[in-house]
Amino acid sequence: MNILFLSIGDIPNIQHREIYPDLLREFIKKGHDVYVACSRERKNNAPTELIQEGRAKLLKVRIGNIKKTNYIEKGISTLLINAQFKSAIKRYFTDVKFDLIIYSTPPITLVDCIEYVKKSSGAVSYLLLKDIFPQNALDLGVLSKKGITAPIYYYFRQKEKKLYKISDYIGCMSQKNVDYVLKHNNFVDPQKIEICPNSAEPIDLSIDKEERNRIREKYDIPTDKKIFVYGGNLGKPQGIDFLIRCIDKVNKEDIFFLIIGDGTEYQKIADYIDQKAPSHVKLIRQLPKIDYERIVSASDVGMIFLDHRFTIPNFPSRLLSYLQAKLPVLIMCDKNTDIGEIALEGGFGYWEESNHEENFLGLIDTFLQSDLRKMGESGYRYFYEHYTAEKSCDIILKRIGQ
């Protein structure tokens, strides 16, 4: 088959270790040709370009800036993405007849580009639903059904509905995601929706004690304390204000918090550290993936935070690196998300609702009294049984009859 994958994220190369390249390599292993259309933001000062890597062709589409920028520029750039992708595909893939289109949210604004490829190639379309937008923006107060932002909300809501309608199949990250989509979109046929979770290539990232101490010393991280690490995006969805309040409440000499990442709320944490100079917290700006994974592997517990106001189920992909490193997982999230329930079921984590700092303090005590090694082993086993890229690839191929 000829498979077209659409993403607004940048995929450096097909061997890059992230959830989407990992998945695409599985299709290549099974004998399929993969075509990728991904973005290249204007600030990178590079043109639209087609790169061939074996059975994969990567089309880097030059777009406006959508990350680490203001809402106005991000909004305009997002609205232009559809036309830019469509134009690039027409130019570079004009002679290719696609059999399958795979795409993920965000953004829903690629819907017209997807529709064009479906009509021109007769391809089957498969949506990897990673982000339920615009409802998530509604939950966080970024958009509203009334007032000045109401037209923006309803515009994106119509795009969202159209995306669900033109998708032949929809793969959701968890059962609660499936339930949410069906409950709030009664036009969606239940037969075309299934669980196809975040996944990755199965790599054991765990390390021995000697290597752990060496990595900690390199990054000036205590070797005699339990390291609770938070890695990933530092934005509004993660409830960074609540995260700061939580770690500020902890008063235990054997606990150290390590925060690694970047995003719109990064400066809030930096300001907190500058003003209060807490001895139990270290902030590291986003690192290359291999360095990030090594620090995670040298930690004791992975943390996931989600804003308690969410009415939609979220399932952060950072869970995968924690499980691969055999770390138990502490989860502070909203009551509509099932990632905490899955952690309990799999024996690799505990969760509480992210609305009271006392909930966090209670979880810290629970982890200090738990067998972290056993929980970590359970997590890696759960990853191998549910979250490998091969399993996701097989789910998609089975659904389309391959």
What does this entry show, briefly?
Helix content is 42%, strand content 20%. With 402 residues, it is an alpha/beta fold.
Spatial separation of the terminal alpha carbons: 10 Å
Query: What percentage of residues falls in helices of 4 or more residues?
Result: 40-55%
Average pLDDT level: 93
Strand order of the largest sheet: 3-4-2-1-5-6-7-8
| Strand composition percent | 15-25%
Count of DSSP H/I helices: 15
**Computed structural class:** alpha/beta
Cα shape: globular
Would you identify the regions where 5 or more consecutive residues have pLDDT less than 50? none
Largest sheet: 8 strands, mixed
Radius of gyration from CA coordinates: 21 Å
How many E strands? Answer: 14
Helix and strand sequence: EHEEEHEHEHHEHEHEHEHEHEHEHEHHH
Structure description:
- It contains 15 helices and 14 strands.
- The strands form two sheets. An eight-stranded mixed beta sheet has the order 3-4-2-1-5-6-7-8, with helices on both faces.
- It is of the alpha/beta class.
- It is 42% helix and 20% strand.
- Helix 2 runs parallel beside helix 3, helix 8 (240-249) packs across helix 13 and helix 11 (318-324) packs across helix 14.
- Helix 8 (240-249) links the parallel strand 9 (226-233) and strand 10.
- It starts with a strand and ends with a helix.
- It has helices at 19-29, 71-92, 111-121, 135-139, 150-166, 175-184, 209-218, 240-249, 266-276, 289-297, 318-324, 339-346, 357-368, 372-386, 389-399, and strands spanning 2-6, 33-41, 49-53, 56-63, 100-104, 124-129, 169-172, 193-195, 226-233, 255-262, 281-285, 301-305, 329-333, 349-353.
- The longest helix has 22 residues, at 71-92.
